[in-house]
Amino acid sequence: MTFHSRRKLLKAIDVERVKAAIAVAERSASGEVRVSVAPFFWGSVRRVAEKAFVRLGMTSTKDRNGILFFIVPARKKFAVLGDEGIHARVGQEFWGSLAGLLSGHFRKGEFTEGLVAAIEEAGRRLAAHFPCDPSTDVNELPDDIDFGLK
Q1: Domain assignment of residue 52, given as a range
Q2: Which residues in 72-89 are b (16+ Cβ under 10 Å) and which e?
Q3: Global confidence as pTM
Q4: How far apart are CA 80 and CA 116, in angstroms?
Q5: Of the candidates 125, 129, 108, which has an alpha carbon nearest to the alpha carbon of residue 25?
Q6: Is 135 inside a domain boundary?
Q7: In 3D, which of 13, 60, 10 has the Cα closest to residue 32?
């Protein structure tokens, strides 16, 4: 199953289930998780994902431990980015494993399941390195899926 537009992908994704997965991941860790679904564009997916990372305020978290899942349905591509705080703890191999997890589900048309599984894994790693302290932790960024421009 392939999707050539954000609209078709959105019909295939259970947005509320993805938002719930983000909320659960963030309850056990001080990190922030975001999902962004981009319109079609020319150029480097990674470069545009990096711009979205900044636009969404991911570099402004207290511990620099935000994770972004950036999806471009029209290009059948995605990027997974982590800020410097979490990257220093998990290394490049972790990002590759998250990408593999997403790819496996996406190839089977399991978009919600792929996002939820990847968010859950990201939450586990965030919790291992940045456990939540309920007395001081605040939700620094919205849990909504971003549909903004690049």
Answers
A1: 6-129
A2: bbeeeebbbbbbebbbee
A3: 0.90
A4: 14
A5: 125
A6: no
A7: 60
